[in-house]
Amino acid sequence: xxxxxxxxINDAFDDVIVDxxxxxxxDDEDDFWGLLxxxxxxSKRLIEIGTGRxxxxxxxxxxxxxxxxxxxxDYPIRKEIWExxxxxxKIHSYIIEDYLDVAGIIASHDFDAAFIDGNHFYEHIVxxxxxxxxxxxxxxxxxxxxxxxRAVDCLLKRKGGMVFARGKYAFWTNRQTPE
Length: 179
Ligand SMILES: C[S@@+](CC[C@H](N)C(=O)[O-])C[C@H]1O[C@@H](n2cnc3c(N)ncnc32)[C@H](O)[C@@H]1O
Prior knowledge:
By secondary structure, the protein is of the alpha/beta class.
């Protein structure tokens, strides 16, 4: 699965500014794929909070049939990246004002996994987990940040299940076994 996306993106685009917190800039693409493999991650419909330039959306397209992704900011380059990697047909992208917009959009839809990589403050992530925990499978980026760790601990205490961590990633599932 690991295709060295950072290299592929640099080869294809002259001027992409990769998000400062992008999963590709943490030198941890191996951890990302390693954790997904360890927990046999796959999704029919995935919700992503924090699209950024769309790089994590591109990687997640390898393991998800359909992605609904949300951000406060619109970066047009994300569509170019999705078209370049031929994953744009899988992606529904929304610009929102806050998480209440997400709540409205996903209220009547089923989804089976989520990826949280938006605002990394504890209170925000707790709000995101309240919105998304019904799917039973949430991948978190930046698990080394204290607010993210506290929010994951809080989720585990409230809902049970298991947490798997690797590098800057954590995966919470309400299942008792990863598969
Ligand atoms: C670290 S970047 C995302 C990087 C992207 N996931 C990647 O790895 O390529 C964080 C993004 O979250 C967005 N963001 C911040 N707060 C948010 C919120 N409450 N809801 C949705 N997106 C948010 C920011 O605008 C920014 O684009």
